[in-house]
Design a protein that fits this description.
This protein is an alpha+beta fold and about 350 residues long. A hairpin with a 6-residue loop joins strand 5 and strand 6.
Amino acid sequence: MIFRRALQREFAQTAAAVFVALFAILISTVLIRLLGQAAGGRVPPDAVVALIGFGALAQLPTVLTLTLFIAILVSLSRSYRDSEMVVWFASGVPLTAWIRPVLMFALPVVLVAGGGSLYLTPWSQQKSAEYRERLENRDDTHRVAPGVFRESASAQRVFFVEVGAGEDGRVRNVFVSEQTRSGPLVVIASAEGYLRGDADGRRFVVLEKGRRYDGTPGTPEYRVMEFDRYEVQVEQRQVAGQQARIRALPTAVLLAQPEPRGLGELVGRFGVPAVALLLALMAIPLSFVNPRAGRANNLLVALLVYLLYSNAISVFQSWVAQGKLPFVAGLLLPHVVVLAVLALMFHKRLAISPFWRRRA
């Protein structure tokens, strides 16, 4: 009981610290990418927080898998460095005795990671795609930001507003440039403007105290008009439904409609809990540390193992999606190979003399 309680307590404390660190790194990475897109005008600033939430939820199973692997590895490696393992071994506790407490700690995390991979990740991917689609289908008035040149969705207009809308809903110093394929260049500059709607739901941009310039660049043929009030109807874009991506489809839909791309996605989703469980067990033999050697060697090997394992899952997922490999083979083969490697690693740590060095 002392042995199990000590391990469970240390696993939990280390996992909490590792999860906070990994989740902070994830949020920072997503935030930097979205802020770059917002600065370039591809994502509205008011949508950054929602997209960060969807992105974090989508990557949560991966974070849980890494948390479980690193927490067990770091905890057991510390026991080797502090010579606690020597005490346990001298007390008659074999290396295989670590399997049960590791499984007791890992199984709840594996179940949460599996549920996230099967349900939470596709849900967040779907919600993120729908949210981005709604943003893309907003009319041009929602794209205007103070002090920034913004291009319209049709790429025919450029807007600039120097001062944003105040309490009265008016913007100041408005610039609009419109260039069509067959028509002349139209430039409108006004002192202020605002939006209004009518009873039929149509929206209009009302500009006041400005000028309009019509002409062809490079020629003297220009027409200048001054106006006190100028109204332009804002074209309402129709929301066009996009075909749902495979990653955003629910697991039940992929199971009901088996086709190569969907089966390839299922290989990745079902592989997450298997990867988490096998890596948790693999952390037991990988945690061995020779106090006289470098302390970071096992961490580098563990990182290499995780990269090879995750890339192998991606390769088999791609083969199943392309129809080069049956679904069952793609689903089981990488985990069977890792399970065999895991058995060899335990045998190496338990055997007095490795089988390849024994003589008849």
